[in-house]
From TrEMBL:
Residues 170-191 are annotated as: Disordered. This is Myb-like domain-containing protein. InterPro entries: SANT/Myb. Residues 36-107 form the Myb-like domain. The lineage of its organism: Eukaryota, Viridiplantae, Streptophyta, Embryophyta, Tracheophyta. It comes from the Eukaryota. Gene3D superfamilies: Homeodomain-like.
């Protein structure tokens, strides 16, 4: 007889020893599982975005610490500033990683919109006002990126800071000032 044969007594004894107590599947309570429910994703509000922008600007321009900050300490300082803001009392605190991720999205979208706004100003006809330029910038952004720009509140907070200032706006307020460092502002599909 083979040692691992299904007909062997050792295998039968092993099977019977494992099934000594029947399990009633109907009595298992599925609702009391110990698997935690995933946390509900909380959308960022306009107010939170504005406080995050303020936290980032104040932390990144701190003359004492300057840019000699390690990544973790930099974002921890931003999260501390953000969570201690009196404007956000009653809001759920955010982790530094959440602040970093949101800032990345805000920065990316605002930089893209700067390019759209600059293009709108260049195409602006005589007699058109700021509202006309904004509508045109939104249209350009949508045509270039196939999504609606929803962070106008963030752009309005950042638009006069050097990094996000468009060439056209810079020339209007301070002649000869160099373009900010928002990165590549080349727009998709336009020359």
């Amino acid at each position: 007889m083979e040692p691992f044969s299904l007909d062997s007594l050792g295998f039968m004894n092993l099977l019977s020893s494992q099934t000594s107590q029947p399990i009633d599947v109907g009595s298992i309570d599925v609702g009391s599982s110990t698997v935690p429910k995933p946390l509900e994703r909380k959308k960022w509000t306009t107010q939170e975005d504005i406080v995050l922008i303020s936290a980032w600007l104040n932390t990144s321009k701190d003359p004492i610490v300057s840019n000699q900050q390690k990544l973790g300490s930099f974002w921890n300082r931003i999260a501390e500033y953000f969570n201690s803001s009196p404007q956000l009392s009653g809001f759920t605190p955010r982790e530094w990683s959440q602040c970093k991720q949101r800032w990345g999205r805000v920065n990316e979208q605002v930089c893209k919109f700067v390019g759209s706004y600059e293009a709108a100003l260049k195409e602006q006809a005589s007699g058109q006002n700021e509202n006309d330029a904004m509508k045109s910038a939104h249209d350009i952004f949508f045509n270039d990126y196939q999504l609606k720009f929803t962070l106008e509140h963030a752009w309005r907070e950042l638009r006069f800071d050097q990094k996000w200032r468009s060439n056209s706006v810079s020339e209007r307020w301070s002649k000869g000032e160099k373009e900010g460092s928002c990165g590549n502002r080349a727009r998709v599909g336009r020359g």
